[in-house]
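Figure 3 (text version): structure tokens given as input.
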């Protein structure tokens, strides 16, 4: 049985991870981190009694095999280091991380196995394996990215859009410059640009469209999440595949598709 601690347990993603963990026969949710603004006793009323709730990261990671984190960048950085101190595997899906927060994740990965993915859905994991080939073969075609999310999403553009953009740029020999939105004013497309467009509306869970176009034809690939379970199931699968590995920073796609 995999003993799991969850960060962001009261959030949109955390609640779904908790539901999916409860339905998984091989995973036991044993602990959850609660933000300082919430009362522990109050929060425990809406969660299973068996889940140990705490405000304290070192208490959270004690006696668990793996931590799953869907929270805020500043929490993620501290949590990665706390997991490393306790030798606990760390899975994070939090997006909008700054360089200093990525540095904390890299530091943690020197002593524990870590996976950070901006998108834990199977569809995006597969797309990330296909996109380099498309970007390379269609190197002369224009490329633009559009993403749509619910009105409460904090970061823009989405972590997934940035991941896809970086994968396209890495696959192309010529320099690529990212352009965030266009206009107002003159916004003629320049060679080597990759436009990234963020839309925030309603309850959209997450939609990404990648467009390649020449003067004569185009290809547009769209991925959308029908439910947050798409991400939660992937994060739990990453946890299963991460525990017991050597320290290091692992890619979700590699964990899923390694032979
Ligand atoms: N990788 C993926 O597949 C994927 C998929 C979806 C979302 N995400 C990302 O996951 C993150 C969370 O998304 P969400 O929609 O679940 O957001 P959310 O609903 O705002 O949840 C954020 C969670 O973090 C908690 N939190 C905030 N500050 C905290 C602190 N100082 N200490 C402890 N806990 C704290 C919140 O507690 P309160 O409830 O008390 O505020 C809440 O439980 C975002 O970065 C989002 O972009 C990733």
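Below: residues designed for each position.
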């Amino acid at each position: 049985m995999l003993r799991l601690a969850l960060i962001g347990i009261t959030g949109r993603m955390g609640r779904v991870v908790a539901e999916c963990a409860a339905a998984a026969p091989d995973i036991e949710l044993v602990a959850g981190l609660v933000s300082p603004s919430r009362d522990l006793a109050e929060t425990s009323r809406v969660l299973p009694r068996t889940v140990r709730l705490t405000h304290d990261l070192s208490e959270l990671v004690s006696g668990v095999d793996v931590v799953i984190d869907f929270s805020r960048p500043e929490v993620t950085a501290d949590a990665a280091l706390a997991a490393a101190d306790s030798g606990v595997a760390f899975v994070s899906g939090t997006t909008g991380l700054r360089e200093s927060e990525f540095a904390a994740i890299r530091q943690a990965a020197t002593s524990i196995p870590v996976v950070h993915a901006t998108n834990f859905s199977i569809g995006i994991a597969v797309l990330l394996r296909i996109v380099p080939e498309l970007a390379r073969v269609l190197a002369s075609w224009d490329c633009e990215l559009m993403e749509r999310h619910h009105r409460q999403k904090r970061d823009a553009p989405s972590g997934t859009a940035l991941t896809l953009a970086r994968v396209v740029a890495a696959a192309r020999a010529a320099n690529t410059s990212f352009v965030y939105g266009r206009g107002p004013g003159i916004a003629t497309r320049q060679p080597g640009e990759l436009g990234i467009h963020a839309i925030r509306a309603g309850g959209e869970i997450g939609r990404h469209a990648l467009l390649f176009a020449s003067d004569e034809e185009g290809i547009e690939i769209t991925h959308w999440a029908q439910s947050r379970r798409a991400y939660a199931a992937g994060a739990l699968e990453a946890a299963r595949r991460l525990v017991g590995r050597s320290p290091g920073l692992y890619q979700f796609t590699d964990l899923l598709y390694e032979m």
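Residues 8-14, 33, 35-38, 70-72, 75, 93-96, 117-120, 231 surround NAP (CB under 6 Å).
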